[in-house]
Structures are given as C-alpha cells and as structure tokens.
Amino acid sequence: MNKILTLIVVLFSVQAAIAANPTPPPPTPPPPPGLPIDGSLVVLFFIALVTGYYLSKKYISTKKGSL
Hints:
There is one protein chain. By secondary structure, the protein is mainly α. It has a domain at 40-67. Helix content is 63%, strand content 0%. The chain contains 2 helices and no strands. It has helices at 2-18, 41-65. It is rod-shaped. The relative contact order is 0.05. The mean pLDDT is 81.
C-alpha cells in the first residue's frame, strides 16, 4: 500500500511541475526615435555648397591681398 501511495504522490507532483506556468518573456526594448536620418539632407547639401563657396572666396581674397 505504501508503494502505491508513494507512486501516486510522485506522479501527481511531476504532473504539477510540468503543468506550471512558464516564465513571462522579457520586456521588449523601447522603439527607436521616429526621426528620419535623411530628413533635411537636400537643405544641408545646399548650405554646405553656399558655405564652401563663401569660405573659398574669402580665402582667395585674403590670399591675393597678402601678395
């Protein structure tokens, strides 16, 4: 009788261990910011062209003035 009772207890405890709730998944990371990388790329390109033109003209004029 003790063997049967022990077997029943072991079987029910194994079933309870298998039927336990799984651990919840880890939380997802926050989403990246919604800023586009190339939002004002055309405007930035034209600003770079104007600045380059201005600086090159300034450099040439100071170079001619020092001769």
